[in-house]
Amino acid sequence: MGIELDFINLRSVEYAHQRAIKEQERNNMAFADIGMRAATARDSKLLLALDKATKVMIDAEETQRKHQMAHSDTFSERRYTTETQMWREAYKMVDERKAQEVPHLMWIYGAAAFLCGYQL
User: How does pLDDT run across 73-92, given as a tens digit for each residue?
Assistant: First the structure.
């Protein structure tokens, strides 16, 4: 039986991301540390959460881009928001076992751990 995180959707990802921002403002290192430990261990549930969250964010941006292109004469390049790029990079770093090399992503790892339901 595989890992399932069916509840990951745009709303839950946005909430987790906002939660990470609030915890960072509070300097709540416990939030980031749990995510960093899971990232360093290349936890399969965390990796799946990062992957699904990134896909959700990309899909939302692509939908928005299609809507904008339908109502505009200008060409829209495929650029993603900073948040989407950070989640994508976080997935890549965990997958390549390089999570420790990019410490500023610890808040994204914390958000992903939050999505996984890890005790924060």
Answer: 555 556 788 999 999 999 99
In a domain, 5, yes or no: no
Domain count, the chain: 1
- Domain interval for residue 54: 10-71+79-116
Residue 90 lies in a domain: yes
Within-domain flag for 1: no
Cβ(45)–Cβ(53) below 8 Å: no
Which pTM was predicted? 0.86
With contact defined as beta carbons under 8 Å apart, do 13 and 53 qualify? yes
**Euclidean distance between CA atoms 21 and 15, whole angstroms:** 10
Q: Which of 101, 32, 89 is nearest to 58 (CA)?
A: 89
- Domain contains 84: yes
- Contact between 18 and 89 under an 8 Å Cβ cutoff? The reply is no
Q: Which long-range contacts (CB under 8 A, 24 or more apart) does 64-67 make?
A: none
**In whole angstroms, how far apart are CA 94 and each of 33, 48, 119?**
14, 11, 20
* Beta carbons of 47 and 95 less than 8 angstroms apart: yes
